[in-house]
Write the structure tokens for this entry.
Amino acid sequence: MKIYIAGRITGLPFHHVKVKFDHAERWIKSLGHNPVNPITLFDDPENTPWDVAMDVCMVSLDRCDAIYLLQDWTESKGARREVSHALSMNMPILNEHNIKSHE
């Protein structure tokens, strides 16, 4: 399953953001899924304008089977937008408590 990772990015130190998204990416891979880490979609994620980043992220989300929510997703305008879009597509909403390994 191709799983998009959503969480807060804006307003946090980039090294913190990179660590938490990389950790989620590794964990999702360990369960046998194909994670989509939005941080890796850009050559210069720290300096990509928010609206440009959101456009790219939404296109990437459209190509996924599910969305995985980091704990801080509700603190992010972008992640809330991604979740709303995922819900409109009837996409499964996953988190650390309900994600299953690929079988």
About this structure: Residues 1-13+36-103 form one domain. Residues 74 and 80 are 6 Å apart (CA to CA). The chain has three helices and four strands.
